[in-house]
Write a structure and sequence with these properties.
Distance between the termini: 17 Å
Number of helices: 19
Shape: globular
Helix content: 40-55%
CATH topology of the largest domain: D-Maltodextrin-Binding Protein, domain 2
Oligomer: single chain
CATH class of the largest domain: Alpha Beta
Largest sheet: 6 strands, mixed
Length: about 450
């Protein structure tokens, strides 16, 4: 949706964020090595990206003279490093992994290379095969400025065997109140079994992602249509109290420092009865190489309260900074990692459960993938297709995004809010204290958007 005028331009706001996040730089991108050109790729550390790195020698063999160097970092660190480098034109990276949060903002600021000419000149790449909502979320003025590696919504995984043993039934479209009741019945401290795993780790892309979907369906929002901060509203308070109470009473041990990776490990090792998170989790849950519970999980839509849906929309994607030196070589790598052929290489090499999901429609037509992903393929597609503000929110908001507010300041604001909520999960402060402090942060942001209304 169009953004209202404001005192600061998005570019200046993001540059301010980048200045706060600035970390020590690494060797310049596009460096000439002993055997040719080296592309430096900044990438988030998770299982799907690790598979891509493991296969990268195939790209190098097919592209003599191009060598790859990966800078692989945990999510929060990767966001900070990539933001600071791209915003300041640091030139450390030839290719960066970003999301649908950054892409339209950075494209508007001129920080990213327009990929549409490269895509149009690549026979067989087939951009029409991308899931439309994912493709559109990475476009600016009708042109793609990033290409998706995988896409996701959010849903709930649950242990069917544990439910059967306890005589419990998972509703097809559960509410959060029902999930809380089920978590209480399945929680077993003596057996080391958490009723549910929920992120508590600080970070706007960590705990705040699932929490914001809970807030949305409870009727909350970060700002009203006039950019008045709403973090102490009754709806926001109800959502925060519910989330904190659920994870404190029936969540995993050490929840305040648990993110996607930590919850994924706990669930796959049989230490949680339910897990609400990104749909991409299913590949790990069903991978015999990493999971003890293969075939034991069911998957249902993200729980709701006052809305018909509550799942998020997100994609990890590859983009090219405007200052990248060897753009043709960078595109060749980006195309390789996001092409239909790569999907098949992952499936035949590592197993079809490890294929990057939620990106290409053709993936869901591969017979081997259909068989491997029969428990979660359709719930993933349904979640992505239904992830709109109209379905997941009760009232209009002045910003784009579902599990984030698509404004430059949200990297800082969201991280600050998540730190307060994490402290509440840890029992260090009350929910009221967390929200009062968060409201002050949000009021400062909202004021800057109101000044030129």
């Amino acid at each position: 949706m169009p953004m209202r005028s404001r005192r600061r331009t998005p570019a200046l706001a993001l540059l301010a964020v980048a200045a706060l996040l600035l970390l020590t730089g690494c060797a310049g991108a596009g460096a000439i090595g002993a055997g040719g050109r080296t592309l430096v790729v900044a990438i988030v550390s998770n299982p799907q990206m690790e598979d891509a790195i493991a296969l990268s020698d195939r790209f190098e063999r097919e592209n003599p003279g191009i060598h790859l160097k990966f800078v692989q970092l945990p999510e929060n660190q990767a966001r900070a490093k990539i933001t600071s480098s791209t915003a300041t034109g640091g030139g450390e990276f030839d290719v960066v992994m970003i999301s649908n949060y950054e892409t339209p903002q950075w494209a508007a600021n001129g920080w990213l290379e327009n990929l549409q000419p490269y895509i149009d000149a690549s026979p067989g790449y087939d951009p029409g095969d991308f899931i439309p909502s994912i493709r559109d979320s990475l476009s600016y003025q009708g042109a793609m400025h990033a290409v998706p590696f995988y896409g996701e919504s959010s849903f709930l995984a649950y242990r069917k065997d544990l439910f059967d043993r306890a005589g419990l039934r998972m509703p097809e479209r559960p509410t959060w109140q029902q999930i809380a009741e089920l978590a209480a019945k399945l929680d077993d401290d003596k057996a080391g079994m958490a009723g549910i795993c929920l992120r508590g780790k600080p970070g706007w892309g960590e705990s705040l992602a699932p929490f914001t979907t809970v807030a949305n369906t409870f009727g909350a929002r970060y700002f009203d249509e006039n950019w008045n901060a709403q973090l102490t509203s009754p709806e926001f308070r109800a959502a925060a109290e519910f989330y904190v109470k659920l994870v404190r009473e029936h969540g995993e041990v050490g929840a305040s420092s648990a993110g996607f990776s930590e919850c994924g490990t706990r669930y796959a090792q049989g230490q949680a009865a339910m897990w609400y998170d990104a749909t991409v989790m299913a590949g790990t849950n069903e991978d015999p190489a990493s999971s003890k519970i293969v075939g034991k999980s069911g998957y249902v839509a993200a729980p709701v309260e006052r809305t018909p849906d509550s799942g998020w929309l997100y994609t990890w994607s590859l983009a090219m900074p405007k200052v990248a030196e060897d753009k043709d070589a960078a595109w060749r790598f980006m195309r390789w990692m996001t092409d239909k052929r790569f999907v098949r290489e992952v499936g035949t090499t590592f197993g079809w459960n490890r294929v990057p999901p939620g990106c290409r429609l053709s993936t869901y037509q591969i017979p081997e993938y259909q068989q491997a992903a029969q428990a979660y393929a359709q719930p993933t597609l349904d979640g992505i297709n239904r992830a709109t503000q109209a379905n997941t929110m009760t009232r209009p908001v002045p910003y784009p995004g579902i599990q984030f507010a698509g404004i430059p300041e949200f990297q800082d604001l969201g991280t600050r809010v998540s730190q307060q909520l994490s402290a509440a999960v840890a029992g260090q402060i009350s929910v009221d204290e967390a929200l009062r402090q968060s409201q002050e942060y949000a009021e400062t942001v909202g004021e800057s958007y109101r000044e030129t209304r």
